Fold this sequence. Notes:
12% strand; alpha+beta; Serine Threonine Protein Phosphatase 5, Tetratricopeptide repeat; 24 helices; 6-stranded antiparallel β-sheet; Phosphorylase Kinase, domain 1; 40% helix; elongated; 715 residues; 4 domains
Amino acid sequence: MAENNDKKKRKKSHVEEAVATEASEIAVATQAAAIDLDDTGDTVHTQVGTVPAPVPTVGTEAAGAPSAMTQSTQVRRILDDIATSRRKSRKSAHVHDRRLGSELVQLPEITDIDPADAVLSDPVIAPSKRLCWKCGEPVGRKSGRGKGPLNGICWNCGSRYSFVPGLKRGTIVADQYEIAGAIAHGGMGWIYLAVDHNVSDRPVVLKGLLNSSDSQAQAVAIAERQFLASVNDPGIVKIFNFVEWVTDDGRPVGYIVMEYVGGHTLKQLTTGDHDVPKLLPIEQAMAYMLEVLSAVGYLHSVGLVYNDVKPDNIMITSDEVKLIDMGAVSAINGTGHLYGTPGFQAPEIVQTGPQVVTDIYSIGRTLAVLTVDMPMSGGRYLDGLPDPSTTPLFEENPSFYFLLQRATSLDPSERFSTAEEMTTQVLNVLRETVALHTGVPRPSMSTVFTPQRSTFGTALLLAPVDGFFDPKDAAIHDPEDIARALPVPLVDPTDPAASVLTSAALSYPRQTLDTIRAARADGFKALINADRSPDDPSVDPLHPSVELDLAEARAHLELGNLDTALQLLREVAVHHGDSWKLHWYLGICSLLNAEPELAFERFHEVLEAMPGEVAPKLAVAGTAELIGYWLSAEEYTSNEQMAQVERWYEIARQNYHDLWLTDHGIVSAAFGLARMLLAEGRFDVAIEPLDEVPTTSRHYGTAQISAIVTLVHGR
């Protein structure tokens, strides 16, 4: 269980390094990520991330400030202004008491940090954390390697560095923002809290934009980041402004001005005493990541990629979950310097540039790091996931493992294709997990499969009784019964033939084939949406719609034309490529052809791709039970075969169990679970799912009689 994993001691987590990647040149440069201010962990950190920060320089005090006012008095006035502003804008208590994940998960209480409490009284970087922002070498040390002043030039790469805040308390930037003090140190400099005197004295955060003394480079950087001001989503920190500050020696320093978010990062919430990582229960982690997926999905919808999803950049407040660092955001397919963090960044980004699926990878890696003891080397998390056979969390929550496995696949084509697709599966896995851990069913309607068309196996427990009176009436394990009962994939609404296929979904197979033949004779003009031109090179004139080809194969399957259906499915693979829907229909074809082992493989591939769906779990359970039953029914059964029977029955039992506890509407799972428990000789336990069959089900009577037969058999 996740709770047991929380108790394990782990190696001290090193600070991840953010990497700047030149996508067009396939060159990787290292950039230091967020740096703790001291080794004790007592200081308050707020929006620490990898937004490029300036070389801090000594600032000047606000013009016109009364000379008689002491610095302490001035600071207190500023902090009072911040506290007053906070009280004005406070809408609710500073305690996180919301339920997230479609109200499925109660999250722990989180107390917000008031701006006045966020300012560091003595901003000092621990010597062990003084690293060059560009090359990562030690600098600013008192002795040894990296010996040098707190402000200076890196001995290795020549880059300027500073570990002294460059803006004094009371400094006014751009005639608007009065600096209250430093609140954290980011990848390339200090991060400041300020009071915005032009907007109700609200607290804001100033982060350096670019570490450069080149005024032209600063201007270009500001221009390139202006688009961030148009980003508007409740799950993303709001960018207010871009300003410039000129130091005493005439160097321009650009800053991003953003809203103050006074919560705690997931990195902070999962770091215990002595920097020992603490794992989250998977329900909490998935609930948080659903909020992140919503925010990242918004960015994708406007053509942007976040590029640096990781626990450090996810802020949890009393009533919100926010992405707080926009420094790595870029356009989809963008080129130039792309920021990310090793261990979280998709490995192919150096070739492909930022893509939707590179964000999907980072989200999956973040979810894994929050919940699993991930292996590390050299201060970064290693690629891949721990072996599920040696990871209790994965053994107890296989759907969660499949979810992570797909999201973090090294093959981009195997990942979830959109944030919305991943959101659906995360939510479904969350429902299942909550149901299993609480014992309260959490059913939901699938968005990619129809409901179960009928039931299978409901009369198998009564077969001995029925056979006693008339052997012909005894139910048998029939693969066709399973195939006919399983749900059917829904038509993709974005498919060019979706409108016609959706309206014909309930047609008889021959009517479907007649419709397709007529459409083919007409060149598919009646089926293809008007916005898809026949001259479009992306449109195959003979196979313009994958859903159309799948519908034709399905119709032949229902008519029993297995050879024709199999040939059509092979053509789907050639013309449209691999997909989970293709594997689903290949599984149905194998099942109808009395090849349950091959069907199991196909259905299991669908389950790995869609781990939150009922349909593949039901198909895996049914085929596993069928394989085990046929093996056990052979005249001569060796010890090895019996071991195989037990293995297949265990697979079936686990999937039937998870299905039934999640949704009491899946009656086939109740009967299946009872059969698997009965096979283990657990008679008293076997009647429990039968007793739980709803009275409204047409199989209620059969369930009650089956329970009685089971009890009698147990005696």
